[in-house]
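User: I'm writing a tutorial on reading structure tokens. Could you give me a worked example: one chain, its sequence, then its tokens, then a sentence or two explaining what the tokens reveal?
Assistant: Sure. Here is the example chain.
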Amino acid sequence: MQWKRLVAVFVLMVVAIPVFAQTTEPFDAMLQKADAARSSDPKRFAELMEQLRADNRQITRLQRDKLKYLQAYEVGIYGDQLAKGAEMAKRLYDETGDPSIKYRAGGLVASFSAINRDLSTGLRYLQKAMAMRKQVPDIAIRHEGMANGALLYGEIGQHRIALRYADEVLADKPNERMRCIAGHHRLVSQFELGALPAQDGLIQSVVDQCAKQNERIAANIARSILARKFAADGSPDRAIALLEQMLPEVEATRYPRLIAGVHALIADLKLKLGDVKSAEEHAKMTVAMGEQIKSSATLVSAYNTLYRIAADREKPSVALDLYKRYAEAEMAHQSDIRARELAYEIVRHETKQQAAQLALERASTQKARLVAGLLLVMLGAIVFWVIQIKRHQGQLQRLAQTDTLTGLGNRHFFTQKSERALVDAARAGDSAALVMFDLDHFKAINDTYGHGAGDWVLKQVGKTCSAHCRKVDYLGRIGGEEFAVLLRGFDLAAAARLAEDCRSQLAQIDTRESGYSFVVTASFGVSSTAQSGYDLSRLLSHADQMLYRAKNEGRNRVCAYTAETAAEYKTPKRSPSLTVINS
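And here are its predicted structure tokens:
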């Protein structure tokens, strides 16, 4: 009997030890530790989540909702399933009765949707969350939601709104972690608005704050902005040194957009310093992440680097293929920008409609003596909103077709209209010509006088060249400082004369209105259907070759694709590389 007692005691000890072990620490304390570690210590976060899932204690509904929030975060960030994480957060938003959990769940949907490019959903949930933030007693949780707002509006391109959210958090005595998160969002917005602080130390302080909190993604985003400032200030070597120093930590974050962005920036800077081999390696690393960074400026930059390298090596077929990929990436990026703008406009319009509907519902509860007046108000509101909807539809259509800075057609609109015009011209037997031009030393204008002066120049160029075009011509901004115009009924000579007129007028622009005095010039390439046929891509390619020749021959001139140049470009040894956009 003695041995049976010993076995019973042993079994009891084996069973009881795990029970005692799991109950030594309160469930709420484990939840709090996991919440604190979720972005700063991924390994510790994963360990705590395993413990929480294995814990078989009875928990309250509030504890279960907190655990569901952390699980949604885990799936979206570390499971690399943003859509699934967003769906889990949506269900939690609908099911929970706790204002703080609902607020956090709405903010999580907003941030996941922003990263996953589902911007309309993100905006809707962000607005829901922001509407209830006064009900959230914990100031740290309120700040977290506002930081999500800064992230989302930054993704949409509404950087002034993003900056406002970040400033509001920083002015409200945030904790150390939120000082980092809001500080890095503030830097991103300032960078996009061209308003970075002049002192490097202010940027470094954000890096140090985030490094202290082990927020590696935020710290390295801030470092990459500092590197860009070094490069803009004329210290590319210093920028490369910083980027290469931070690269191992960047890759350890496993955040594709950050990793690709750093590789693409290194590639661009290395190429400018003549380290072609290293530039090519970093650009290829960026392109290899294409599906994870599609529709991004990073992918455009990487293809542009590879294209320039192939062009300098005088490999026309490779350069042409890379140019097409660069153009496709640029078009996808521009489409993504338009989609973001449209999402913002659509949700803003929905918000106005909801506000009007709410006002009508409140008005309907008033006394019967106001019914007649309310009916008139409702009728007027309906008419008003019909007019507003029509107006907004027109605005949205213009947004999708127009370059917002210059008012000219964007690349997509120019391509669409030009291809259609060429089909019509071919059927009618009419001639057509294409003029492509690129501003000379435009980057130097931006670097020397600021982006405000650069934007002013682009607007003046659009106005000047529009004055030389007819209603049947299509003038578009097809790149950063690159423009093209399709001329129906023009032969090569007439198109070259028009190009020469534009070149002359551009050189006479009085820049003193911008606050600075400098000369604006452009290099022009001209092609026509007589030599290139009615295919837009061939017309663009031939005009691009001539633009490159104009650049090589000293800039500020017009070069036309004639029969002689056509023969010359068929000889491989004399075939120049294609033009480099933004050269």
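What the tokens reveal: Residues 16-132 form one domain. The two ends are 93 Å apart (CA to CA).
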